[in-house]
Design a protein that fits this description.
Elements (H helix, E strand, L loop, with lengths): L2 H11 L4 H8 L3 H8 L7 H11 L3 H6 L24 E12 L12 E8 H6 L7 E7 L12 E5 L11 E5 L2 E9 L5 E4 L8 E3 L8 E11 L4
Parallel strand pairs: 1-3
Antiparallel strand pairs: 1-2, 3-4, 4-9, 5-6, 5-9, 6-7, 7-8
Helix pairs in contact: 2-3
């Protein structure tokens, strides 16, 4: 196995796409792709960058032998389980928030700031695939009591068909929201807040907003009382 193969294996073990890995390293996605496919050679500067950002021994990348086994990026080291837990998949957490309120403007290039471990068996039982999943924070109280401010949610970007069974992450006019969705008889969609202090939003099926996208369904969430 070559250095590029070890880099690719590490990325895939963390459940990251090439774009997400590039965002974490602060490089262009094409650079990660070119290195993994052998189009571009790995130079010393890139090896050092990967080593520092991902806490991987440079010697391991070059030779496959190391003093310390590859571990998670520093930003997620608090969540790292025992290395004996081989069934874990790491889902990236991004530094953008979903508004449970009046809207949150998304970053143009959101950065993966951490990766949290989930059991691969649990993902399989739930019908989830790691490459479709993103972790984000909720901001605001419009979805209380279901989702509270600062809750973490897992978004499945492959689930974009509206259903009342779960909330959805939505982009509307440049803002990000988390809302329930109800489909009306005429095909229009109602974006529903659980907190009745907030008005519902209606998406006209005949004249939908230019920037309206269902990003994915909320399939899991976590709340802390401290």
């Amino acid at each position: 196995m070559s250095a590029k193969d070890r880099l690719k294996k590490f990325r895939e073990d963390q459940g990251l796409t090439r774009r997400e890995m590039a965002d974490f390293l602060g490089v262009k996605p094409s650079k990660v792709q070119d290195i993994e496919t052998g189009k571009q050679r790995i130079n010393e500067d890139f090896l050092i960058l990967v080593s520092e950002k991902c806490n991987i021994d440079v010697g391991y990348l070059i030779t496959g032998q190391h003093n310390n086994a590859p571990s998670l990026p520093d930003s997620s080291s608090l969540y790292a389980p025992s290395k004996n837990h081989e069934d874990l998949v790491y889902i990236p957490q991004f530094d953008i928030e979903l508004s449970a309120g009046t809207g949150a403007y998304p970053a143009d290039h959101p950065l993966a700031i951490a990766s949290l471990p989930f059991s691969s068996n649990w993902l399989i039982k739930k019908g989830l695939q790691a490459h479709n999943l993103k972790l984000l924070r909720v901001m605001g109280d419009s979805m209380e009591p279901l989702l509270k401010d600062k809750d973490m949610v897992m978004i499945d970007t492959s689930r974009i068909k509206p259903t009342e069974a779960m909330p959805f992450a939505i982009r509307l006019d440049g803002d990000l929201f988390v809302k329930g969705i109800q489909r009306q008889g005429d095909g229009s969609l109602v974006l529903v807040s659980r907190n009745k202090a907030y008005n519902d939003l209606i998406i006209n099926s005949k004249q939908p907003p230019e920037d309206f996208v269902i990003i994915g369904a909320v399939v899991w969430h976590a709340h802390s009382w401290i």
